[in-house]
Design brief:
This protein is mainly alpha-helical and about 140 residues long. It is about 40% helix and about 10% strand.
């Protein structure tokens, strides 16, 4: 059934038949699969770091590679608090919409992917209370 729906493809060789997923999407709030999503995120970050190291640490002008880290220090009353805290969910919505459009196009134009380029984007966000971190590390 999943093969017929193009969700899985079969790989047959001398060891037998194996199945491979054509895509795997684990939602941000899915209770299962977060381990695979975490590994995927880690792997994407490490690949970006290794690409930079392979260039001897030199930056690239290539707009499709790299990474950036931004830290925002905000208070409870900060006028941009909602924007900062909602940044990740906004990027997720944008990425999910783009992925859906790319998948739909690829499904309708399979000939357009003769030499595919796999582009992986990783995004993460965390928050902490610096004063609590200092107190914890001292005890």
């Amino acid at each position: 059934m999943l093969v017929a729906k193009n969700k899985l493809r079969t790989i047959a060789d001398e060891t037998g038949v194996r199945y491979a997923a054509t895509e795997c999407v684990i939602g941000a709030n899915d209770p299962f699969g977060w381990e695979a999503a975490m590994f995927d995120h880690y792997q994407a970050m490490v690949q970006a770091l290794c690409a930079r190291l392979a260039r001897g640490g030199n930056p690239t002008n290539e707009p499709r590679e790299g990474g950036s880290t931004y830290t925002y220090v905000i208070s409870e009353e900060h006028p941009m608090r909602g924007e900062v805290l909602g940044f990740l969910s906004g990027v997720r919505r944008q990425a999910e919409e783009l992925r859906k459009r790319v998948v739909a196009y690829n499904r309708d134009h399979p000939e357009a992917i003769e030499t595919p380029l796999r582009v992986t984007t990783y995004v993460g966000q965390s928050s902490s209370m610096p004063s609590l971190e200092r107190e914890t590390s001292l005890s």
